[in-house]
TrEMBL record:
Family: Belongs to the carbohydrate kinase PfkB family.
Domain (Carbohydrate kinase PfkB): residue spans on this chain: 16-290
GO biological process: carbohydrate catabolic process; small molecule metabolic process
Pfam families (alphabetical): PfkB
Protein name (Swiss-Prot/TrEMBL): 1-phosphofructokinase
Family annotation (InterPro entries): 1-PFruKinase (IPR022463), PfkB_dom (IPR011611), Ribokinase-like (IPR029056), Tagatose/fructose_Pkinase (IPR017583)
Molecular function (Gene Ontology), one example: ATP binding
Keywords: ATP-binding, Kinase, Nucleotide-binding, Transferase
A GO cellular-component term linked to this record: cytosol
Length: 315
């Protein structure tokens, strides 16, 4: 069972438009509404893969009630923590050339009692989980050390931890030795405090996070694929993508693919890449099913071209 923790969930509204022109009335050609937040997306992708999942998240107001209903309709078990503030709603607008504009609301501030209740709810279900995926930004009211507390408690319960966050929350959790961290290139550059221009730069940064405590690093590099660095070696995974419709939730789908395939080694990386590639070809934050995957389009190698320049260097 894969338990997900989403401290700042959302209701995600996605629109497809012919073009986005500032100051004009834009008529959408497609729309969808999904429960959102990085951990929620991981649960949705895990459930689509036929694996049991439980989503732990704070919910409040009418938006929170709608998120809970949508998750229930998708067959996802939820362990909600009721909070006073209303769950946020996010908007994404996708153009035909793949350009995506996102507007993310800040979300409610959690009280100390709500923060403690969320931590206790995770702890109450930790013993039943094979993996605990802690994902996304921390809402107002949660200290940067909150994820570090989750890592410490969950390891004590025997669960493995996958951490997908950034900034102070990521750095504070590293000494607890999360089993895998999943930054993108920008988050990785921020964590080490320097720009990343090549795959060699990414590898050095990943090694630095491992020196600080991460047992493995799964770095998402956009069009350049994903780099996995763990005790067994260094691997680069790539996939051919013919059309990008939306990258909302693609990284979350990748993490789900990695975890359902065991969460270690090149086979799990191949699954991560296949899930991420499938997700970007779907509308909004739709999560891929097994029928959407194209494992034959994925390549994984341990011969990493360290001097290869990143398509999108991270400052």
């Amino acid at each position: 069972m894969i338990l997900t923790v989403t401290p700042n969930p959302s209701l995600d509204r996605a629109y497809e438009v012919p073009a986005l022109t500032r100051g004009e009335v834009v008529r959408a050609t497609g729309e969808r509404m999904d429960p959102g937040g990085k951990g929620v997306n991981v649960s949705r992708a895990v459930a689509a893969a036929g694996v049991r999942t439980l989503a732990v998240l704070p919910l409040g107001g009418a938006t929170g009630a709608l998120v809970a209903r949508l998750l229930d309709e998708q067959g996802i078990d939820v362990a909600p923590v009721q909070v006073t503030g209303a769950t946020r709603a996010n908007i994404s607008v996708a153009e035909p050339d793949g350009t995506l504009t996102k507007i993310n609301a800040p979300g409610p501030a959690l009280t100390p009692a709500e923060s403690a209740a969320l931590l206790d709810t995770v702890a109450a279900h930790s013993a039943a989980a094979d993996w605990i995926a802690c994902c996304g930004s921390l809402p107002r009211g949660l200290a940067p050390s909150w994820y570090a507390d989750v890592v410490r408690r969950s390891h004590a319960a025997g669960a493995r931890i996958a951490l997908d966050t950034c900034g102070p929350a990521l750095l504070a959790a590293l000494p607890g030795r999360p089993d895998v961290v999943k930054p993108n290139a920008t988050e990785l550059a921020e964590a080490v405090g320097r720009p990343l221009a090549t795959l060699g730069d990414v590898l050095k940064a990943a090694d630095e996070l491992r020196e600080r405590g991460a047992r493995a690093v799964l770095a998402s590099l956009g069009a350049d694929g994903q780099l996995l660095v763990d005790d067994t070696g260094t691997y680069l995974g790539r996939a051919r993508v013919d059309l990008v419709r939306s990258n909302v939730g693609a990284g979350d789908s990748s993490l789900a693919g990695f975890l359902v395939a065991g969460g270690a080694g090149p086979a799990a990386l191949a699954s991560a890449v296949a899930h991420g590639a499938a997700a970007v070809q779907l509308p909004g934050s739709a999560m891929p099913t097994p029928a959407d995957l194209a494992p034959g389009a994925v390549t994984v190698t341990d011969e990493v071209p360290l001097d290869l320049a990143l398509t999108e260097p991270a400052a």
